[in-house]
Amino acid sequence: EDIVVSDVHVDKGQARVSLHNIPDSPGIAAKIFSEIAKAGIMVDLIVQNVSQENKTSITLTVLTSDAERCVQAVEKLKHTWPQLEIWTDDDIVKISVKGIGLRSHTGVGEKMFRALAEVGVNIQMVATSEIRMSVVIAKKDAEKAQMALLKTFELS
Amino acid sequence: EDIVVSDVHVDKGQARVSLHNIPDSPGIAAKIFSEIAKAGIMVDLIVQNVSQENKTSITLTVLTSDAERCVQAVEKLKHTWPQLEIWTDDDIVKISVKGIGLRSHTGVGEKMFRALAEVGVNIQMVATSEIRMSVVIAKKDAEKAQMALLKTFELS
Ligand SMILES: C[C@@H](O)[C@H](N)C(=O)O
Ligand SMILES: C[C@@H](O)[C@H](N)C(=O)O
Question: pLDDT by residue (tens digit) across B111-129?
């Protein structure tokens, strides 16, 4: 199956909100996103990796203008989880490589990560699917990252 | 913008490989996926959350039949990163809720997480985009999770 990378998209209007030291048991994610939904905040990316010592982190991205209210919405959860830490960063962009069949080609992830590595861009977060690979990087790296990816996937 | 959840898909043929304590600096992801690509292994999900104390984890999923070779491919990296830990788990399924406009509706993530919480399913990993929300859960939870999601999104 051929892979076709059709687009490199840069999303600059986002901030990330990370919740650290959350317990890894059923209902936790539901509680977090219930508070965020109640505040009427739209969420784009959500990333959670596997837990270690029964603790994990959830990071979500929201519109920069919603970041403060998002933090307020989840801060109440500190009553329930005293070790909860909330970190935010609006100095980021999300870059997505879109295409089809990204999974069936062993090299796409490697190509994307190598293109960014070669221009010295640090990858802060990764979330992928068969049709889209997204990374979060620092805002200052947005331009050179986009150019490196357009070049590596031969898009103008 | 209306959200339309069109499908709940269960992927049972996967195993996850997690690399813990990797340094958070440019080129690390590229090295990891270069080893995996050299071994000719197809990768589906890739998740990396933000680092803490300059260390982070990358988890990827592969076909269960490729898990052992995948571990062998990345084990060499222990020479370069002695604190690298590699964990695998083939007792998982990936469940994806597909649709359109998932981001623009504040409630979809919350709905998905709540449906799983209500049947006591623990969410091990999350990776989302505007058109697909994927979670990794234990294999034993696959059936009740799928039923809960089909019910919550009113799909048969
Ligand atoms: C951390 C969080 O995802 C938790 N495991 C839950 O199921 O809600
Ligand atoms: C951890 C890994 O993603 C690293 N930050 C890199 O840029 O390759």
Answer: 999 999 999 999 999 998 7
